[in-house]
Design brief:
single chain; 68 residues; mainly alpha; 2 domains; 2 helices; 49% helix; elongated
């Protein structure tokens, strides 16, 4: 496991002691609190997207097996 390239990797490596700390940069953005604009999605939207993608994959696999 090399140097982390996303936030969750930094967090997990900090938890297991591989990284000393998690540092978040930026406090001079043009927002009320100076932090960057956060892009959030609702957990239900994420879950529905996963269910939909699983359904598409399932249908795709049915077509492949049917044509063999």
């Amino acid at each position: 496991m090399g140097f982390p390239c996303n936030f969750m990797s930094f967090v997990t490596q900090s938890v297991i002691g591989k990284q000393k700390q998690v540092t978040v940069y930026g406090n001079d953005y043009d927002t009320n609190d100076g932090s960057c604009v956060k892009d959030h999605i609702h957990v239900v939207d994420l879950a529905e997207a996963h269910v939909k993608s699983c359904s598409i994959i399932k249908d795709f696999l049915k077509i492949i097996w049917k044509n063999k």
